[in-house]
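Inputs:
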Amino acid sequence: MLQINELRAAIDDKEILKGLTLEVKPGEIHAIMGPNGSGKSTLANVLTGRDIATVTHGSIIFEGRNLLEMSPEERAREGIFLSFQYPIEIPGVSMVNFMKTAINEQRKHRGLDPLSASEFLRQMREKKELVEIDSALTNRSVNEGFSGGEKKKNEIFQMAMLEPRLAVLDETDSGLDIDALRIVANGVNKIRRPDTSVIVITHYQRLLEYIIPDYVHVLYDGRIVRSAGPELALELEERGYDWIRKEADITEESWTTDQK
Amino acid sequence: MDYRPEVIDRLSSMFATGRDTFLKDSPELFNRYRESAFGDFLHLGIPDRKNEAYKYTNLEKFLNHQYDDYYFPRPEDFREAERFHCEVEDLDVWNMVLLNGFFPNGEKGLVMLPGGIWVGSMRYAVKQFPALVEKHYNRYIEDGNDGLIPLNTALASDGLFIYAPKNTVYTKPIQIVNLLHSDKDIFVQDRNLVVVEEGAQLSLLSCDHAISPQRFLTNTITEVYVGRNARFEIIRVQNQHNNSGKITHTFIHQERDSYASSNNVSLHGGLVRNATWHHLGGENSETHSYGLFLADKEQHIANFVKVDHTAPNCNSTQLFKGVLDDKSSGAFNGRIMVHKDAQKTNAFQSNNNIILSETARMDTKPQLEIYADDVKCSHGATVGQLDENALFYLRSRGIDAREARLMLMFGFAHEVIQNIPIEALRERIDDLVHKRLRGELSRCASCAVQCN
Amino acid sequence: MEKDQDKVLTEVTSGEYKYGFVTDIETEVIPKGLTEDVVRLISAKKEEPEWMLEFRLKAFRHWLTMKMPTWAHLTIPEIDFQEIIYYAAPVQKKGPDSLSDVDPELLKTFDKLGIPLEEQKHLTGVAVDAVMDSISVKTTFRETLAEMGIIFCSFSEAVREHPTLVQKYLASVVPYTDNFFATLNSAVFSDGSFCYIPKGVRCPMELSTYFRINTSNTGQFERTLLIADEESYVSYLEGCTAPMRDENQLHAAVVEIIAERGAEVKYSTVQNWYPGDKNGKGGIYNFVTKRGICKGDDSKISWTQVETGSAVTWKYPSCILRGNNSTGEFYSVAVTNNYQQADTGTKMIHIGKNTKSTIVSKGISAGFGQNSYRGLVKVLGKAEGARNFSQCDSLLLGDKCGAHTFPYIEVDNPTAIVEHEATTSRIGEDQIFYCNQRGISTEDAIGLIVNGYAREVINKLPMEFAVEAQKLLQISLEGSVG
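Outputs:
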């Protein structure tokens, strides 16, 4: 489904991703963990087409197509969904109008007719319940005046509406209390169809207790330095990132010594 | 070269030749002020860049034009107006048409609506309510520097009169359609007076249309008295063609415990300048001034607002937004003035603008002048573009870039429109704005007039 | 508690001016009044070359055609320009080369002002040009600076010794026709500082000019010209005081800054001219034209001002951002107490591409003071990618003062982002109560809060002066509060 190959990306000439390789197959859940500044958010940006980072090398193939040639909206219509770490407030644009436009754009892309008003409202209602989102929120402007937790729930609600093939959850657990975390995680699990893939980007292990990954990767200094099963997340939780840092740095140093 | 002396000459001759007409056909009260007002106009002249309030607005294009002689309607002029029909879907209003600033003659000159509110022509009002009109006419004008204000007093012969006696309430909005229609280029001066007495309530919807392609310039004064515990709302939808200029001066005087709001939505018109004064003359009052404009081609749209807090415990807001495309230009000139004894004032002012093209231009001057200490006053102004982060957020949900931009612009505009208190009207204006943003003609669906 | 606060505010407004003494020294003056002959006489006394006199005369003739501006939010009684002395100089041996040549009275004066002119006594790392009335008394550390090619001297010396530089840059940022006061200054300016930082040089110490008005009835008209050549850096500070007198005195200065490619200039002012007494009697009328041009790409000019003195302040230190990627900054704290009036702010003119400007203005009004911020942010059509952020806050202490904000924003480019924010409020009772509850008296609380409020600007001053400025702020506002 998704192949990231030797990906390098820079922000303002500073290289952030330094040759990242990752393959995600249909239905798999991958967790990407790593300390601050390791490049996690840049990866989310590059996957969804935010032009903050420039790709300097490598490729991303999604469902056989070159993702890097696609605009952000094309990627979304092809089924890539990003749950934003900091969802954007858009005053004056109502949630209803926003969601209706997004859904119908996606349907148009798939050659489907726009949803009827009643069908759209039915879906809204149904998906709202799924993520236990307060009805009043969807009558407001997009994210405007939402609390941190409400914003994150709203992201998952949108994911439920848009039914993506690949969901990228960027630090979705940050700023959530334990109840909200559970609601958000359960939402993701309920929405997910067997072939939906998920990339969970997170700093902590706690979200992974609810969304159980098939693979855990440790991103450090722009590269995946370790990959393993869910047990790696537990290990990271216990031991922190220092040992990874040391391990990774040692590798680096040994390179230098070798060359001398 | 300074165009103004020539224009002043033309207006002087318009005043001289018009004298025969208005001395005969217009009320004594109007005539009483004319000579001295014209003297004031000659003294002040035509405002130019040196006048702070007009620093960014050049009137030349519309003032420096040979308009026809002093306009006074003939009965046949109104036939065209009668054909005009404006209907806002689901909006139940009481509706009246003014043509070139004049009410049609006949019985409808002044009518009482259910509930006891009087609406009609100023000329009739002067006869029917002489003491009332005398008490309020020419009493709330504040700017002593703007020559166009005495020019209106010197030349106007009719306009809208609304009188809401004590505790009267009219639940529907009163809609006034200001039509411009003529086979000649004309300079229109209408003079309006709204008196909302203690405990009374009314909303006024004023729509501007120019239905013949001639060059028009309108110079309007509206004086509004809002009594104790009274409530007044005015919504203006300005939709004249771009060969037409509209200058409004609105003076809202408020007594204690009163509420007033003004909302100017400017869509079309070559030159639009709305000046609104909010005078909070009594404690515990609240006033709101809103404005939205969408400008393209070579339109110039200016908003001038002054909120004068002379009494304690009052709240005010100003929210003005503009979207500028093509070679259009915009100006905002807002002031919060808090006088010495107006303690416990809360005043807020905001002006936000989006520039879409290389050749558009925006000038803004949000000002605070504060002489009391126990106040909370703030203002902000921005000139910029659509928010890139918001744009990406929409695109990441599959909405294409053009549509996302439109949505953001619409959202930007809606923040002003959402303050319109009447839902059906709010939706209608949302729709007009939507169409305007898409570049479609924003005329009303059932309107016979093909105005844009 | 409110009463308590009022009492404290009244005490606050009775702060004493600490620099109000007069130096008794023999002074040479040109009798009051302004004519072409006076202009010629000033030039002759300074033994100026012909071109300098021509410049003055051109300015003087132009000035005769001008009227004093009235647009500012200030009430100023009519000024009789024929009642002013345009030249006054302490008598001393010409060009004091060593300190022993300087009149001991003068040394004492500057000592008393906290500006010792003996290099060894002075704050390390600060070179001072001391100006009394119309002339420069002494410039310290000149030799040290000269070794690096830095020229730092009085304006008169610069005219004599570096005529090419002066001719090239004089009036290049503020033309002699600029405005009433700048034109007057161009005709009669007496002295001031001149500074040139050569290519690639980082000036190792703070350069500073200290202005002192001493003689009564005199106007002070100094002129500062500061040139930072390519890739150079300089931080410059000026301070000013004057004796307490019942009549108003005029100060009309001009400062011009030129920043070439990659250069950075920090210009700080601590303005503490005599503000007049608590009834509004006396005090300096301070009309100053300060402007810098970021001429080259990647250059930067930063203005910081702490304005506590003067009866009337009229000044708008500005930046013309002509070079691409150039930056302009303006940080200001202005205090008006008693009957002081200030109309001050800045202009940021964005001409080059990707130019940035930041404006932070903090106004504090007390007593019957009137404090206005007036600013212009102008983005020209070609200034792609221009950015501005302005924050202008006003704090009101007492119900008889005023705080006003008059920003002008003119944008002619669709890629510009200009943001202006302003708030006006008084010190929150809840803030004071919070301090009270922690055992801090109301007067200390006000002092704390005012200082906190101004900190963002004070922090931009060179460290040595930040402390001074903070003290000054307290003196001018707090009286017994300390």
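Remarks. Chain B has a mean pLDDT of 90. The two ends of chain B are 33 Å apart (CA to CA).
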